[in-house]
Amino acid sequence: MKPKLSIVKIGGNVIENEAELHKFLDFFSELKGAKILVHGGGKLATQIADQLGITSQMVGGRRITDKESLKVITMVYGGLANKNIVAQLQAKGTNAIGLSGADGNTIQAVKRPVKEIDYGFAGDVEKVNTAAIEKLLKADFTPVFCAITHNNQGQLLNTNADTIASEIAIGMSGVFETTLYYCFEKKGVLLDISDENSVVTHIEPKKYQELLQNNIIADGMLPKLENCFHALNQQVNKVCIGDISMLQPSSTLYTTITL
Amino acid sequence: MKPKLSIVKIGGNVIENEAELHKFLDFFSELKGAKILVHGGGKLATQIADQLGITSQMVGGRRITDKESLKVITMVYGGLANKNIVAQLQAKGTNAIGLSGADGNTIQAVKRPVKEIDYGFAGDVEKVNTAAIEKLLKADFTPVFCAITHNNQGQLLNTNADTIASEIAIGMSGVFETTLYYCFEKKGVLLDISDENSVVTHIEPKKYQELLQNNIIADGMLPKLENCFHALNQQVNKVCIGDISMLQPSSTLYTTITL
After folding, report:
1. How far is B91 from B78, CA to CA, in rounded Å?
2. Is position B230 within any domain?
3. Where is the Aspartate/glutamate/uridylate kinase domain positioned along the sequence (chains A, B) (predicted)?
């Protein structure tokens, strides 16, 4: 039987709220077994960029990463957010080690080709170095990835944290029984958007089609769910979507997605 | 026989000059055997702090690290400088992994006690986790340390890069035959400050006393040399001081210090 591995992704809404982050890191520390954390930090970067007088250009919710924006992202994701999370996890007894995809050549990406839009220094994941990540896990480190990769030619690249999390989960599924957790601001996929507790607790392909047809899954939820099924179709065991409380063993109110 | 380990420290003068950094990273990549890089980045931090409207207070060449300055240092040392160095080393075929002292709990420090001056979030190294660093070296990673430690209670601390380098060298000397390299802007200890090539190529304790008496070693050189002998007295095999070219096998014009 394969050993278990949890890959947990948190977004900006957790990182920017000190109390929420603290609570999350407690839950993450208490999580049993091998684990990996992936974090974004978008709003914090925008805030520092504003202070530096750098305008963050966004197209369809995606940042255009010019040279100056990449600097800010490298400072905020790789430095400020990552090192503070690592220090706090260490204080909670989790042997965290902070990484970008350049560190240990863990995640190699390619600069997104310019089509209609030039996203600048944005990276599309090409290869997860599962051997390197496995070495770190075996040495009892808990990797904490920020949303930065590299092209192995010296260029750092801003990369979507959801994608990093799913690609790591996919890569590690050869060796581990993987569960991918997406923590966001809601308790899961909601039947009724105005009712926080109307969580669909289990989605499999048939249910997914049904939810799609009834327009329950739309807008921002659609790419999220597509990403989940992409991971499941590539051997990830289980994907869970919910707020940070889903990491607690007693929690039941979140969405589990399986094939 | 113990395996060899090189610990190389570079200062701000190398990091801030792109061409110089590139050249240094080539030399570092070509260095044979196990190796560790330690970098500062002081001037770059001051520059970003200025842009953010944060005044860097310095006393006797040391930064007073208030909460806002620590933020900048975490961004610049841990993020901008560290991740770019790591990405460039990876491109040169060196399997670099960027670390602060919080990562893998590699370097624990204590917040400097307030005496006449309150240095703020400045750390004095308490313990180098040699087992963790050895694990990384054995797994074929090349650690790249920025000048940040932690107190293992969630607090990051700004820490002198020279000290980090010597403390790592001292800690690793139990297992490795260590050479500590301090790269700075001069070719070594100079007999005549106005003659770049008047390098004292070898210093041992007797020569050191002689140089002290003749006022050859004074000002900024004094604490540097004290730091070197401190390391040598704690089992570090050899300390070398010079500019980046001393890492080249063909180089002879630099200062070697031994007991």
Report:
1. 19
2. no
3. 5-242
Q: At residue A255, what are phi and psi to the nearest 5 degrees?
A: -100, 125
Tally Cβ neighbours within 10 Å of residue B48: 23
CA B94 to chain centre: 19
**Domain encompassing residue B67:** 4-186+239-247
**Interstrand relation of B34-39 and B96-99 (parallel, antiparallel or unpaired):** unpaired
Q: Would you say residue B192 lies in a domain?
A: no
Tokens of B153: 């209670």
Full strand arrangement of the beta sheet holding A142-146: A96-99, A142-146, A34-39, A4-10, A177-183, A238-242, A255-257, A202-203
The secondary structure of residue A148, as a DSSP letter, is E
Residue B85 domain-assigned (yes or no): yes
pLDDT < 70 stretches in chain A: none
Q: Give the DSSP letter string of B38-49.
A: EE--HHHHHHHH
Instruction: State the CATH number of the domain containing residue B35.
Output: 3.40.1160.10
Domains identified in chain A, total number: 1
Q: Which residues of B touch A75 (CB under 8 A)?
A: 48, 75-76, 79-80
pLDDT at residue B223, rounded to an integer = 87
Residue of B49, B51, B80, B81 lying closest to B63 (CA atoms) = B49
Residue B113 belongs to some domain of the structure: yes
Minimal Cβ distance to A155: which of B86, B87, B99 = B87
Count the neighbouring beta carbons within 10 Å of the beta carbon of residue A242: 23
CA dihedral A31, A32, A37, A41 (to 10 degrees): 0
Q: Best mutation site among A52, A72, A97 for testing chain B: the one with the most B CBs within 10 Å?
A: A97
What tokens does B78 get? 């841990």
Is B69's Cβ below 8 Å from some Cβ in A? no
- Asked if residues A79 and B79 have their Cβ atoms less than 8 Å apart, the reply is yes
Residue B129 in contact with residue B105, Cβ under 8 Å?
A: yes
Closest-CA residue of chain A to B141? A104
Q: Do A71 and B88 touch (CB under 8 A)?
A: no
With CB atoms and an 8 Å threshold, state whether A96 touches B83.
no
Predicted confidence at residue A43, as pLDDT, reads 82
